[in-house]
Every structure is written in structure tokens, then in C-alpha cells.
Design a protein that fits this description.
This protein is mainly α. The chain has one domain. α3 packs antiparallel against α5 and α7 packs antiparallel against α9. It is globular. InterPro entries: DUF2306_membrane. Pfam families: DUF2306 (PF10067). Keywords: Membrane, Transmembrane, Transmembrane helix.
């Protein structure tokens, strides 16, 4: 009787039948990703130089172009600056590989915050750009439209689980939001070195150079890493052995 019971009793699953659990990968050495700290330093310096002149400054004393007949200009500019600051801080978290792998939930939430702030900053930027200096207006407008479009496209791709497209579009968005750093660097460096040429060419260069070069660099990086497997949310959940 005992022998018959043993025959019908289900056997314990073999190790091969058990669901496999991935072990946490070893930490990537800092020298493999040395760009995160410089990115944060450059972003912090840029935000300080751009935001500080407006902190506690009344409209009459703020460094803004003439905007007669548009009383909402300054309040909208302040909202644009706040939203732009949020996008630059959020995008630094978005491109941080360790955060993306170890805390995908935080990555998703900062991504949502980034997209919302991007929409606000981009729409207000397009409203305000007619009051900016004429040199560079076309470059700023194109960069803003592309930034808005790629950010929305990246969000839509994530919603549809198209992770390769999501990565591509959000890297384009990162390149475009960081183009402002180039503009500030070019103008300030030229003026500090005693630039005596036509200011029109300087402003045009500053407004085009940053986002065009950034997009080229991102495209080079995408081509260079094209053979790498694309991480999916499931791939980012690891179980310690």
C-alpha cells in the first residue's frame, strides 16, 4: 500500500524546473561611467548662472528683453524657468544608469515629471520666443519644437513597451535640453575674451551649435551601442543570490 502511495505522490521539482532568478550584476566601476559627476557639476553651474539673476528680482530690474504690451511676459518667464530647471535636474536622474537599474520605479516617476515639465517649458518657450533677440530665434524655435516632440515620442514609446525607441527618443530629448549649456558657454566665453565681431553671428552660433552638436553626439553614441541588448523593465529587477 505504501508503495502505491509513493508512486502517485508528485515528486519534488527538479532544479531545472524552478523559475530562474537573476542575480544582481556587479557594480560598474566609476571609471566606466565618469561622466555623471561632471554632468551634475555643469548642470548645477548652469542653473546657478541662469536662475540666480531672477531670484527675488523685480521685473523692472530683471535681465529681460523689452516686452511692452504683454504684461504676462514676466510671470510666464518665471514659470518657464522653474519648469526648465525641473527638466534639467530630472533628466540627470533619467540618464543615471545605476538609478535606472536599481530603482526603476523612481526612474519612471522622474520620467513623468520630466515630460510634464518639458511640456510646460516648451509651450511657454514658444510663447516667449518672439520677444527674444531676433538673432537665434529660428534656432531656438526648432530646438524647442524638437525637444517637445522627442519627449512626447519617448513617453509614448514607453507606454507601448517599445524600449529601443524609448531610449533613442529620450536621448535625443536629453541632447536638446542640454543645448542651453552650450549657448551660455559660447556667449560668455566670447564676451570674456573680448569678442569684437558682429553680435548677430555670435547669437546665431550659440543658438544652433549646441543642439546640433548634441544630437550628432547622441546619434554617434546610439550607433556605437547599437549591438547592445536593450534593457526592459523586467531586466532591471534583480534578486540577490
Amino acid at each position: 500500500m505504501t508503495q502505491n502511495i509513493d508512486k502517485v505522490r508528485p515528486s519534488a521539482p527538479e532544479p531545472a524546473d524552478l523559475p530562474r532568478q537573476r542575480t544582481a550584476p556587479p557594480a560598474t566601476p566609476f571609471w566606466r561611467r565618469p561622466w555623471m559627476i561632471p554632468l551634475w557639476i555643469v548642470t548645477a553651474a548652469f542653473l546657478y548662472l541662469q536662475v540666480n539673476p531672477f531670484v527675488g528680482t523685480p521685473e523692472a530690474e530683471a535681465p529681460v528683453p523689452p516686452h511692452d504690451g504683454f504684461p504676462a511676459y514676466y510671470p510666464l518667464l518665471i514659470i518657464h524657468i522653474i519648469a526648465g530647471t525641473i527638466t534639467m535636474l530630472a533628466v540627470c536622474l533619467q540618464v543615471w544608469p545605476k538609478l535606472r537599474r536599481r530603482n526603476p520605479g523612481l526612474h519612471r516617476w522622474t520620467g513623468r515629471i520630466y515630460v510634464v515639465a518639458c511640456v510646460i517649458a516648451a509651450v511657454l518657450g514658444l510663447i516667449l520666443v518672439p520677444f527674444a533677440p531676433v538673432p537665434g530665434q529660428v534656432g531656438v524655435t526648432m530646438a524647442t519644437v524638437l525637444w517637445f516632440a522627442f519627449s512626447i515620442a519617448g513617453w509614448v514609446a514607453a507606454r507601448r513597451n517599445r524600449w529601443a525607441k524609448h531610449r533613442r527618443y529620450m536621448l535625443y530629448s536629453f541632447a536638446l535640453v542640454m543645448n542651453n549649456v552650450w549657448g551660455l558657454f559660447i556667449v560668455r566665453s566670447a564676451l570674456e575674451m573680448g569678442f569684437t565681431g558682429d553680435i548677430t553671428y555670435l547669437l546665431e552660433t550659440a543658438r544652433w551649435f549646441g543642439w546640433v552638436v548634441n544630437l550628432m553626439l547622441v546619434q554617434w553614441w546610439l550607433n556605437r551601442t547599437a549591438r547592445r541588448p536593450v534593457e526592459r523593465p523586467a531586466d532591471r529587477v534583480f534578486v540577490k543570490a
